[in-house]
Design a protein that fits this description.
The chain is an alpha+beta fold. It has two domains: about 5-50 and about 115-180 and about 275-355, FAD/NAD(P)-binding domain (3-Layer(bba) Sandwich), CATH 3.50.50; about 60-115 and about 185-275 and about 370-390, D-Amino Acid Oxidase, Chain A, domain 2 (2-Layer Sandwich), CATH 3.30.9.10. Helix content is about 35%, strand content about 30%. It is built from eleven helices and 20 strands. Helix 1 links the parallel strand 1 (about 5-10) and strand 2 (about 30-35). The termini are far apart. It binds flavin-adenine dinucleotide. Flavin-adenine dinucleotide binds near residues 18, 38, 172, 302 and 304.
């Protein structure tokens, strides 16, 4: 076993939220190490497209900008979108958001997941990073003021004052700390792929709520679209079994040809979907961020955005406690972080779960109401403006 190392914070998980957490906490003046069980991300390759993309909200963009991650993303591949069209029965009737309704330049940016992670890792510079290494077990402190001991699969032991668990929805650290979760699986899978369509409006995101699940088209800078098609499990299995031409035909039909014909589709990947919320966001010596604390249905494109908001809050809470001369790793400080994040996270979890149930034929009357509601909102500019504002400023 290697000699124990001491430091302020160990971030476990080098996914989008963990890598950004390591940067934010380092920039806030803490000594930080990061542990990621996978290999370091591949550098961005313009010839490759990541089938997984994120709709990044303005608040997340500001965080990435402040951490110096944004320029590398902007120089690689990024697609701002200023309009969003959401409908259920007929594309021309649904809800249309325009960034200008809320005085913003963009509603958000479509960015490949791999690009965000690669750009964040690149900015880590000489931050100690244990890649290809599992955070295996933790010895928790018995008394306040003691450090947890984090044992890694390469034999190294870290003794940080605080462990930040960014180890995803299955969070082994959350389980080891005995933190309960509320969780259920959605009987749906999300199919992602890149597609070429014949007649889309530029810089516009589209989402249709089908009885079998929502279908989103997210614009790419080169005119392609990334799709996220969440479908009931049987339907998803059928769609995955189709050849490209048959899948493209189904996609055109499902989108009511709102973007014209589907000309090309890439290979497809599918993800199981669930809702998860941790009962507590902290234990002595441990704090949860990102999917380790909460996972949601992707219909609102909010999972990583919530994780980035956790990171911004955690860095602010810990540094203001430290600057005020208080113990920044004390349970009281971690509670303040949890209080600041829980309500907003729960609100988004409830909203997405409600939309899933409302549109999914699970509650037919609510579905009818939402169908009428979407069309009615369009005719009430102030209400639409308010929703557009929520879609940008609060995300
Ligand atoms: C189809 C789909 C579409 C989505 N679209 C959007 C979108 O448009 N916008 C948006 O904001 N969100 C979106 N999301 C949600 C988003 O993918 C997640 O919220 C995000 O990936 C969470 O990031 P994370 O870093 O918390 O967790 P993860 O991405 O799960 O990363 C966890 C990391 O921890 C590592 N790890 C785990 N255990 C250990 C261990 N013991 N030791 C070391 N390392 C460990 C893993 O290897 C992994 O790298 C979407 C999700 C899906 C499924």
């Amino acid at each position: 076993m290697n000699a124990a190392t001491s430091l302020d914070i160990a971030v476990v998980g080098g996914g989008p939220v963990g890598a950004v957490a390591a940067l934010a906490l380092r920039d806030a003046g803490f000594s930080v190490a990061m542990v990621e069980r996978g290999p370091p991300p591949r550098p961005f390759d313009p010839a490759r497209y990541d089938a997984r993309v994120y709709a990044i909200a303005p608040a997340s963009a500001r965080l990435l900008e402040s951490l110096g991650v944004w320029p590398a993303i902007a120089a690689a591949r990024i697609s701002p979108y200023g309009r969003m069209q959401v409908w259920e029965r007929a594309a021309e009737l649904g809800l249309r958001f325009d960034a200008t309704d809320s005085g913003h330049a963009a509603l958000g940016w479509i960015i490949e997941q791999g690009l965000i992670v690669a750009a964040a890792w690149q900015e880590l510079g000489d931050l100690p990073c244990h890649a290809g290494v599992d955070a295996e077990s933790v010895r928790w402190p018995e008394d306040d003021g003691e450090c947890p001991t984090l044992r890694l699969s390469n034999g190294v032991e870290l003794r940080p004052r605080l462990i930040v668990a960014a180890d995803g929805a299955d969070s082994p650290l959350r389980a080891q700390a005995g933190i309960d979760v509320t969780t259920w699986t959605y009987a749906q899978r999300a199919i992602v792929a890149q597609v070429q369509v014949s007649d889309a409006r530029p810089a516009t995101a589209y989402q249709r709520f089908l009885p079998t699940g929502p279908l989103a088209f997210l614009p790419q800078s080169d005119g392609r679209h990334s799709i996220v098609w969440s479908a009931d499990t049987d339907r998803a299995d059928d769609l995955l079994a189709l050849d490209d031409a048959a899948f493209a035909a189904e996609l055109g039909e499902a989108s009511q040809y709102a973007l014209g014909d589907v000309l090309e589709v890439s290979s497809r990947q599918a993800f199981p979907l669930r809702l998860l919320h941790a009962a507590d966001y902290h234990r002595p010596g441990l704090v949860l961020v990102g999917d380790a604390a909460h996972a949601i249905h992707p219909l609102a494109g909010q999972g990583a955005n919530l994780g980035f908001a956790d990171v911004a809050q955690l860095a602010a809470t810990l540094s203001s406690a430290r600057d005020a001369g208080r113990d920044w790793s004390a349970p009281r400080t971690l509670s303040a972080y949890a209080r600041a994040r829980k309500a907003g996270n729960l609100e988004m979890l409830a909203l997405t779960d409600g939309l899933y149930r409302g549109f999914g034929l699970k509650l037919p009357l609510l579905r009818d109401l939402l169908g009428v509601g979407l069309e009615a909102v369009n005719r009430i500019p102030p209400l639409k403006g308010l929703l557009a504002q929520q879609a940008t400023a609060r995300r």
